[in-house]
């Protein structure tokens, strides 16, 4: 009965994760293709029409228009392109740094490992986001590449810990010992034999890191340090909307709802992937 | 224990040194200075002001001067307001501390309660509802939640003030906005940690002794199962500092975060470096407290040797 309950639950959670996956896919697809389709019917999200001004959602403008008469649905979709791009690219950067760092620490072992992990420990308690703010503000770079790189540079800590733990456990397993006995070099053992087996937890964490990264980008944009006009991300749209919540509530509600749905579905996917790959610790 | 504290203190000095150095060079390498503003003033006045704050001297001299001051515990003087940075922290810090403390307290209290109920009633609808609510809490960032709360509660219902700090009730909405994300995270961590512990032998023993269920869960299981939450408090406070920037901006609160952000844009070098060092010192102290708390919570950690986190991990296996 207990086993049945566990299986029921696992299936349920996978179903939730599958639904979340479809939802996120639809949002991402809409952001990717939506502006093109809208452009075909004459909505481009950039044409300013002061005479139109801000109108609430109508059949012509599903998300309404902003104070400059720009279609909000198209703006939300364009903002989504940047938000999702930031999430994907930055998570990839964080994986790159974290996996390399963790693998090196685990393989080096001893004092090097100890020092490297102490640095990670220290950075955990370090106000990295405050540093990020200072860097973004003083360098004054407004390029997306800098945004990707800097958010990635502060998001790799957990990835490094997970990779190190995995590598430490896997390097003593028979297949790794067999490879060593055959005279395979450490770098090759790491790349060909150990890291592919450590992929599961890394993928789980990557899925859970994506919404975090998305929030960080929106957070920086909210403070005026992230994506700059004429570009728009969900963060900048929410910021604009929040200043006009009383008069034009749809300017906040529409981007906020889409962003929350995207983040929530990513979190559900992450939970589901974790259950599937690692097994739920509580069952 | 003494070795742990001593080791941490050495590490903290290194961290604070790195923070101060990085902040100094970053700010000075960046274009623009504190007096390159749009205000109309003669070149002589600008020059005199730069002289007053030692901006005319070579950078390495300024750096040496700033570090020597820091060693004495002096964070310098704001170049924009001509007030000691320590005085500014004393003025704006308590507002932020009240906000963050209230948010964290609510998040820890309610989060643990939610997590305990979910773990205790595992795999029932209570568990599912609680954990779904926690996940929704994690997914709604403060800059979305804040304006929505203002619109719904302050403006539509007229229950709580929408902005500024005047009286106790004006802290409620900002604290909720700040704390909700952590509430969700803490609920999930509590449930996970407690669920692991509830299956262990010493819990079965406690039940076999005939202890009432609430005592088993709260006194025996929670004490060990709470460890992930304690670990999370360090990073959570770090994140709360940046969270307070957002919340203070939304609710127009004159806290340290607001002041820090203004100073970054103003290139007010001593304030940025000073407040940054202050934040780092705060987190260093807090992380040390977290490490010491492991020993209090889990008796197995107290007796073992080695670094506390690894000890906790080994003990749990």
Describe it for me?
The complex is a heterodimer of chains A (283) and B (317). With 283 residues, chain A is mainly alpha-helical. Helix content of chain A is 73%, strand content 0%. Chain A has eleven helices and no strands. In chain A, 47% of the residues are buried. Chain B has 317 residues and is mainly alpha-helical. In chain B, helix 1 runs antiparallel to helix 12, helix 7 runs antiparallel to helix 10 and helix 10 runs antiparallel to helix 12. Chain B is flat and about 85 Å long. At the A-B interface, helix 1, helix 3, helix 4, helix 9 and helix 10 of A face helix 1, helix 5, helix 6, helix 7 and helix 10 of B.
Write down the Rg of chain B.
24 Å
Q: How many helices of chain A does DSSP assign?
A: 11
Estimate the mean pLDDT confidence of chain B: 80
Number of strands of chain A: 0
Would you report the number of β strands of chain B? 0
Note the main sheet of chain A. Answer: none
Quickly give the structural class of chain B.
mainly alpha
Low-pLDDT windows of residues of chain B: 304-308, 310-317
User: How many helical elements of chain B?
Assistant: 14
Overall pLDDT confidence of chain A = 80
Distance between the termini of chain A: 12 Å
Give the helices and strands of chain A as they follow along the chain. HHHHHHHHHHH
**Assembly form of the protein:** heterodimer
Low-confidence parts of chain A: none
Alpha-beta content class of chain A? mainly alpha
Q: Main interface pair?
A: A-B, 46 and 55 residues
Helix content range of chain B: over 70%
